[in-house]
Specification:
Elements: E1 39-44, E2 65-68, E3 73-78, E4 86-92, H1 101-105, E5 120-122, H2 130-135, E6 139-141, H3 145-154, E7 157-159, E8 165-167, E9 180-185, E10 187-189, E11 192-198, H4 199-202, E12 208-215, E13 218-222, E14 238-239, H5 249-256, E15 265-269, H6 271-274, H7 280-292, E16 300-303, H8 332-344, E17 348-353, H9 365-368, E18 373-374, E19 382-383, H10 392-407, E20 412-415, H11 429-439, E21 453-456, H12 464-467, E22 479-482, H13 484-493, H14 504-512, E23 517-518, E24 523-524, E25 531-533, H15 538-542
Parallel strand pairs: 15-16, 16-17, 17-20, 20-21, 21-22, 22-25
Antiparallel strand pairs: 1-15, 1-25, 2-3, 3-11, 4-9, 4-12, 5-6, 7-8, 10-11, 12-13, 12-14, 18-19, 23-24
Helix pairs in contact: 5-8, 7-8, 10-11, 13-14
């Protein structure tokens, strides 16, 4: 791509609007900035050591869940607490709520008016009855976006699209709603419940299935919490899914030895909002068209979380499944095809990963073992990081990063809200474990991806804790995610508040001294290396005013 400077600014891909950049001066590289509906970031980071990972086309399957062994057999493995007395894998018929979509839509119970500004929720009472009156009334201020969304779920509602809440009828509320085609009993072992399913017996190469979890004489049907695909949303049956993909030689060559050496100009891409269709396939076609018109000059894209979340419209941070891609975006192979094209065209791919919480609706880990989750997090719960290393939560975290690396050829990842504390806030043992696991050679039990680019959203005053090696007590990341610069700029120029405030003097220091200080905490950060400057991300767009929570945009709606 051509050189980027104030005289030759990048083009915003969706509207063709040009933006200027801050420059360090003649002969120096530009600092990082980001603009637009997708985020543009210039990243200046320490040099990386690039090495080859194992070069095979074998897909990776998480330690728990369904693992195809061959064309005819699938293995299953699940953790469970001692109260689980038996477990079965049940192949089911797809008896879902969408058998009659139009009739389903006519039962709309209400909508959220002016959801973009998030100021007032207006509920229309077509069939709502007392429950909606009790919870909201005709007009109710939304004092907290998350509590509002969770209350809607508790009231029996779910988000069907960007304009309305519809009645939600769980697939699994009563056992007589599930039509079993065949069932396989799993055996309890010291490692959990295990078993195998013959696909000929199941009658399909990719059958729909659920878990039948017994506690004494009682049982419940649940989707597979470790599912790779949820074609009928978070409460529907899971689907046996194969993740093998015939990656092109050109794509593999770029993935094994990227050319950018840790210096990226990043477009943050929300798959659902990038195109009217909101799918991986539509995103690929748009990027192809933009590239052909020389209007996509980014060197990397960073996906908003693409894991399965309730409904079809969400930032992605309220996901319920760590390994399943969002069904409304398309099947996993569509994402693999998109990544392949990016690599063939010299574009690195990063994923946004969330380990500090798991969305409340559709998360069934508690049904297997309540000890896996700590349910005190505000968005529905989080993995129980108080467990010892080696327990299920750490296995999920390790498998998640391996999943995006080996199955989707990720070049990097942004880890959300690492400052909230994964385990012990001071020692950061989870982050340190992940850094070592990603970069250690394969023959030492790691993934061998020394070139993997890690960005942590971490607002602790000591920036160096993010980029120091784990052996020196740091997180082991390459860069710290920084949106404080945009907060300062918006406050100075547009007088737009955010959930943390800066003084005009500190904001000026932050901007005109290349953001070498923290405007929020009046703390020196040190050298410019090791920052990802974000000028417009989901927090800036959506969570911009904590002084009046009613003005915060409901994340489930975007």
């Amino acid at each position: 791509m051509g050189a980027v400077s104030a005289a030759n600014p990048p083009t915003r891909p969706d509207r063709g609007i040009q933006y200027g950049l801050f420059s360090k001066g003649a002969g120096q590289q530009a600092d990082s900035v980001s603009f637009g509906s997708g985020v543009l970031s210039l990243v200046q980071a320490p040099p990386l050591s690039f090495g080859l990972n194992r070069s095979n086309n074998q897909p990776f399957y998480p330690a728990y869940g369904a693992k195809p062994l061959n064309a005819h057999e699938v293995a299953f493995k699940y953790p469970a607490d001692p109260s689980v007395t038996a477990m079965e894998v049940v192949v089911v018929e797809p008896l879902m709520r969408h058998q009659n979509p139009e009739a389903y839509r006519t039962r709309m119970f209400g909508w959220v008016h002016d959801y973009v500004n998030g100021e007032i929720a207006q509920v229309a009472h077509q069939q709502a009855g007392a429950v909606t009156n009790q919870r909201f009334g005709e007009k109710a201020l939304v004092d907290n976006a998350h509590l509002f969304a969770n209350s809607m779920v508790q009231a029996g509602l779910r988000l069907e699209d960007k304009t309305g809440f519809l009645p939600f009828y769980p697939f699994i509320s009563k056992h007589d709603q599930v039509e079993e085609r065949t069932a396989v009993a799993l055996t309890r072992t010291p490692e959990g419940f295990v078993g195998k399913l013959n696909l000929k017996q199941a009658g399909s190469e990719s059958p729909l299935y659920m878990l039948k979890v017994y506690r004494g004489n009682e049982y419940q049907y649940i989707p597979d919490p470790f599912s790779l695909h949820q074609p009928m949303d978070v409460h529907g049956p899971s689907q046996v899914t194969r993740l093998d993909y015939p990656w092109s030689a050109e794509s593999r060559a770029f993935w094994d030895a990227p050319k950018h050496q840790g210096r990226f100009m990043i477009h943050k891409l929300h798959v659902g909002a990038f195109t009217p269709e909101g799918t991986f396939d539509a995103a690929l076609k748009k990027m192809q068209a933009l590239k052909a018109a020389d209007r996509f000059n980014y060197t990397a894209i960073e996906f908003n979380p693409v894991q399965e979340f309730p409904g079809d419209a969400n930032w992605g941070y309220d996901f319920a499944y760590h390994f399943a891609t969002e069904n409304s975006y398309g099947p996993p192979k569509d994402l693999q095809r998109l990544v392949e094209w990016c690599h063939e065209n010299g574009i690195a791919v990063m994923f946004d990963l969330v380990f500090n919480h798991v969305g409340g609706e559709g998360n069934y880990l508690n049904a297997l073992d309540p000890a896996i989750m700590n349910n005190e997090a505000p968005l529905g719960g989080k993995l129980n990081w108080q467990n010892k290393p080696g327990d299920v939560p750490l296995q999920i975290a390790r498998d998640t990063v391996r999943h995006i690396i080996e199955n989707f050829h990720a070049d990097g990842a942004r880890l959300d809200a690492t400052y909230t504390g994964f385990g012990n806030v001071v020692e950061n043992w989870v982050l340190q474990d992940l850094a070592r696991y990603i970069r250690q050679p394969v023959n030492q039990g790691g993934l061998g991806r020394s070139q993997f680019f890690m960005v942590h959203e971490d607002y602790r005053p000591d920036k160096t804790v993010v980029t120091r090696s784990p052996d020196a007590g740091g997180n082991g990341a390459n860069a710290r995610y920084d949106d404080e610069s945009m907060v300062a700029l918006r406050q100075l120029l547009a007088q737009v508040n955010h959930h943390y405030q800066v003084s005009p003097q500190d904001a000026g220091v932050a901007i005109f001294h290349h953001l070498s200080t923290s405007p929020e905490r009046d703390t020196m950060y040190g050298p410019m290396e090791g920052f990802v400057r974000s000028f417009q991300g989901h927090d800036i767009i959506g969570n911009r005013d904590n002084s009046n929570p009613g003005r915060r945009i409901v994340p489930q709606l975007l």
